Amino acid sequence: MKRVLFIDVRNTARSPMAEAWFNALAVGWGRAMSCGTMPAKAFDLNAITVMAEVGVPIRPHLPRALNQQLLARAQCIVILGSDVPARAFPNALIWDFPDPTGEAVEQYRNLRDAIRERVAELAHSLHPIQMEAIPEKA
Predict the structure, then answer these.
(1) 138 pLDDT higher than 70
(2) What pLDDT does residue 34 have?
(3) 122 CB-contact burial (10 Å; exposed 0-12 / middle 13-18 / buried 19+)
(4) Is 1 buried (19+), middle (13-18) or exposed (0-12) by CB count in 10 A?
(5) Mapping DSSP to helix (H, G, I), strand (E, B) and coil, where does residue 2 land?
(6) CA dihedral angle for residue 16, residue 20, residue 23, residue 25, rounded to 10 degrees
(7) In the CATH scheme, what is the code of domain 2-126?
């Protein structure tokens, strides 16, 4: 089982979206978790809404803090923004997606679709033979 950890600052939009996409694509061979370096107290409702629009719900949980156990279990670490200090994760992939907090819902949709594409590329690189079909965009 391939384990991927998606990290952003608040664990409210970018990293939960990436986690949900990866888990939808990697059924049977991979598992993703997400966390934040400074997690918020609640999820971003716009993120939940735009993921539900494409039938890939964000797993309900409170934003999760980064910890050593999550890092130790991950075979692949992905940082989802330049607001996370990359030097703290020397072997991580860095995807520079902006934090959408406070933006219009259309920005969340654009972010959702961009993250979907990157996650699909990652899933294919980790397991090129048995990747689930990518859900269509809304």
Answers:
(1) no
(2) 97
(3) buried
(4) exposed
(5) strand
(6) -130
(7) 3.40.50.2300
